[in-house]
Amino acid sequence: MSAAEHQDFWPLGGPVDKARIALIIIDMQVDFCAPGGWIDQLGEDVSNTRAVIGPICEAVDAARAAGITVIHTREGHVGDLSDLNANKQWRTRVHGLGIGDSGKNGRILVHGEPGWQIIPELAPLPGELVINKPGKSSFHRTELAAELENRGISRLVVAGVTSDCCVQSTVRDGYEHGIECVLLEDCTAAVESPNHAATLEILKAYGGRWGGVSNRVAFREMLDRAGD
Amino acid sequence: MIEMNNTLFKPIAAKPYLWPFDGKWSATDTALLLLGFQEATVAVLDANAELSVANSLLKVASAAGVTIVAARRGYGPDEHPLATRRRLLGDPIPERGSADWALIAQIGLPPGAIIVDCAGDNAFFGTRLEETLRQRGIRNLLVTGLPTDGLVHATQRAANDMGFECLAIADACKGTSQARHDAQLRITTFGNGLFGTVATSADIHAALSSL
């Protein structure tokens, strides 16, 4: 890959020091993307979200090898559901099994339950930052913005699920915070393919109004060329 | 004497569910958001039809006592990095105070309307909009604006995370393309309304005139 293409990983170019870059893996939890998790129990197809586990593992390996900050998020709510909006709970209960209800892997999206855990393939290593989030955006009512600022991180490489939901919210909010985001399109997926395609088209439009879109191979090559 | 403001409006047959989720909305707990109806944006998106629809909703909602919020996108001295990034990508965020930035002349805001100035695409970010709405007891939001895939969707996503019950009015919003407009509204409603609901202005007019 040429130097010019390398520049294209970031919509407005690089190079960037590794110390300023983090990889964030969004909501790769049992409830969202494992057999027996919430989405699977609802009878929805988790094959799209499971298909990106391998590619995300490769991106995480590259990030760990390069020594950049790795961040994981978990969507969920405290046991008494005091951080769960009434309309959010109501919408999920229409499906017959809502947030806070008991399923095959414990209470749906409740802290500490088996279904809320990150899938074993992508388990965080000791020392990696894990953000518990009550909303779709990883920045909403979390310490993420403060953690990034404290660590001097200004660029976020984004992977995880689902592209149309929490991933899109996180990229959009990253932009608002002045964080330059790039989504790895081969490391994200949605349950509904048309929504996934539309999300990528919207994020790519106009050269990336909220951030860029790239892939795990370009990510690894960008890291290889980045300074410390 | 009847306190009209607390009178419940009829729920709206929105997609994907009858809005609001608990069936209760009145002038006292509802705001109409007019996002980005600014001189340059209306012109660039050729959005006079959507502006006309929003204006008609504004008159009816305002007469019913619904809180009105207008958001203006623009940059001031504190927002240069965000604006600079977008301008490098060809998105001309207007400077505050410029003719391009002004709310379009056809929008006649009533006295007491809330005006929000944001630098990005989320009218809640870096503004006091959330606390202003909460202080007034507002929990339901009717959303109109430009573009659907920018200010409208970013603001509705944030509002939804905050627990506001949102309804996007499809014919009072226009995207940077028809496909993006349609896609963002579809993404709004998937998963039984992960980000709220979508209806048309006719549905809102019918509900507001049902008292």
CATH class label of chain A: Alpha Beta
The number of helical elements of chain A comes to 10
Runs of chain B in which pLDDT lies below 50 for 5 or more consecutive residues are: none
Coarse structural class of chain A:
alpha/beta
Mean pLDDT of chain B: 93
CATH fold node name of chain A? Rossmann fold
Which topology of chain B does CATH recognise?
Answer: Rossmann fold
Cα(first) to Cα(last) distance of chain A is: 21 Å
First-residue to last-residue Cα separation of chain B: 15 Å
Helical fraction of chain A equals 25-40%
Number of domains of chain B: 1
Strand order of the largest sheet of chain A: 5-2-1-6-7-8
In total, the number of strands of chain A is: 8
Largest sheet of chain B: 6 strands, parallel
Strand content of chain B: 15-25%
Order of helices and strands of chain B: EEEHHEHEHEHEHEH
Oligomeric state of this protein: heterodimer
Describe this structure in words.
The complex is a heterodimer of chains A (228) and B (211). With 228 residues, chain A is an alpha/beta fold. Chain A is 36% helix and 18% strand. Chain A has helices at residues 3-7, 30-33, 38-41, 47-50, 53-66, 86-93, 144-151, 163-176, 193-204, 216-225; strands at residues 21-26, 69-75, 102-103, 106-107, 129-133, 155-161, 180-189, 212-214. Chain A has a 6-stranded parallel β-sheet, with helices on both faces. Chain A has a two-stranded antiparallel sheet with strand order 3-4. Chain A is globular and about 50 Å long. Chain B has 211 residues and is of the alpha/beta class. Chain B has helices at residues 39-45, 48-64, 80-88, 129-135, 148-161, 178-193, 201-208; strands at 12-13, 18-19, 30-35, 67-73, 114-118, 140-145, 165-173, 197-199. In chain B, the strands form 2 sheets. Chain B has a 6-stranded parallel β-sheet. In chain B, strands 1-2 form a two-stranded antiparallel sheet. In chain B, β7, α6 and β8 form a beta-alpha-beta unit. In chain B, α2 runs parallel beside α7 (201-208) and α5 (148-161) packs parallel to α6 (178-193). Chain B starts with 11 loop residues before the first strand and ends with a helix. The mean pLDDT of chain B is 93. Chain A binds chain B through residues 11-12, 85-88, 90-92, 94-95, 135-137, 140-141, 164-165, 168-169, 172-173, 175-176, 178, 180, 192, 194-195, 198-199, 201-202, 205-210, and chain B through 17, 20-22, 81-82, 85-86, 88-91, 120-122, 125-126, 149-150, 154, 157-158, 160-163, 165, 176-177, 179-180, 183-184, 186-187, 190-195.
